[in-house]
Specification:
Strand order of the largest sheet of chain A: 1-3-2
Strand content of chain A: under 5%
Helix content of chain A: over 70%
Order of helices and strands of chain A: HEHHEEHHHHHHHH
Distance between the termini of chain A: 89 Å
Largest interface: A-B, 41 and 38 residues
Number of helices of chain A: 11
Shape of chain A: globular
Oligomer: homodimer
Number of strands of chain A: 3
CATH class of the largest domain in chain A: Mainly Alpha
Structural class of chain A: mainly alpha
Radius of gyration of chain A: 22 Å
Largest sheet of chain A: 3 strands, antiparallel
Chain lengths: 247, 247
Amino acid sequence: MENHAQPVSQVIANQIEQMVLDGALKPAQKIPSERQLSNRLGVSRTIVREALHALQGRGVIKTRHGQGSFVARIVPEPEDESPLMQLFFSHSRTLFDLYEVREQLEGQAAYLTAQRGTEEDFYRITQAFEAMERADPLANAELDHAFHKAIVEASHNAVLVHILASLKKLLLHSVHASVANLSHRPQVRQQIDKHHRQIYHAIINRQAQWAQKAAAAHVRHVCESIREIEKQERHIIREAITDTAAG
Amino acid sequence: MENHAQPVSQVIANQIEQMVLDGALKPAQKIPSERQLSNRLGVSRTIVREALHALQGRGVIKTRHGQGSFVARIVPEPEDESPLMQLFFSHSRTLFDLYEVREQLEGQAAYLTAQRGTEEDFYRITQAFEAMERADPLANAELDHAFHKAIVEASHNAVLVHILASLKKLLLHSVHASVANLSHRPQVRQQIDKHHRQIYHAIINRQAQWAQKAAAAHVRHVCESIREIEKQERHIIREAITDTAAG
DNA sequence: TCCCGAAAACTGGTAGGACCAGTGATCGAT
DNA sequence: ATCGATCACTGGTCCTACCAGTTTTCGGGA
């Protein structure tokens, strides 16, 4: 006995929206193509498209021609090289502000994960962690991201997941934060690895307080390292200029 | 030379929404049928339907099978905040996730303010605090708002200010009723006032850790009070229903 | 004449096929 | 190994047909 009280397209839209709210669909994640959904759900592509348009109207998803549909970000799309972004990051001050906020939220994510993470969550985190440990030498930034992402997503707080995803995207867009630079400095890299191990073990041992502190300390350390590097660069530039002036 | 930068369905949706905002289409007014629009606009009915679904998602129109589509929204609504954020606020399940994040951020704001607040900042905070204390009886939500705002802005972290401003703005719109209710419960109100005093004194004495804990505890308390009220309301409703059934 | 009920003429909802238009990966030639 | 064309994806648009509600119409019976 199918209740045709509301159209199928609305049912589908609500279902998908619920999945986003529950965190089953992560921010910026690609959702199946219209034709795939059409097949799996046993409805026409027309209906799927109408559902997706409704979600688009609600701001839940973002559709790009030729690419697919993606879960929307909680902060409005940065718009490539928008003047706002330029302004935002022209002052490295706001970059550090971002890091300050991130420090707090990463800490909380670690705390919550240590508290409520399931065995499945821990399995995923362990995999990410071990992959990172194995590939240590070149220190792929991807793996670093994956590790933190696994932790955040295990916090079971959809809002936290969305906000941190947005923050990270903002940080990536910033020209300053070339994390690549960090990895090339041995002592910094070593400290980062140590932090990662601390965070990991605190979480799987469900030591929430510890996990929080370790995660916060980690972000703070990264931020301060960047600050340090910037200072050094400024110094080098100044020296170069004075050299030129002297010569 | 039509730029196909954005899909036709979106163009149509925006056009119709604009007409509603301009007042060309009045609330509850019936808009032309899909087939009529299809003919007049020179596009397929499919496209018209997709546009209408988008508008439906935005809450601009309401469609009834066999009757047509009607303008729904009376309030133009600026829509300046992240739509996804609004969604998180509208579902009570994720509302608590939101509070969890806010707890952390308010805590950090208090911490930073206690640490780096200037005398001017403290003056503003003091004014807000004393105004709130004086006007205690009716417990105006505005003053509460102003007090927290003063603290956050004194944190000297632009990102934090921005995020918390967005959160609070949405909070005012969503659980406005609940907040009003909170003030009317003596013991809750008393606890809130106590928290405010703790936060205030910790900040002006530059006890950052304390300020952080007090602010976080404050938000957590508010959140749990709302949770409690919701539970009570559910209980009342259930009783009413069983009463009806019994009668 | 008036009233009722069936039919017709609307309304939106669903289906499936065909094709266009971007995007990205694949693979072949250089 | 590099570059470029091709191909297999993605969403965007159109069409045609049909189903399912709602309203109007209109004809036959009282």
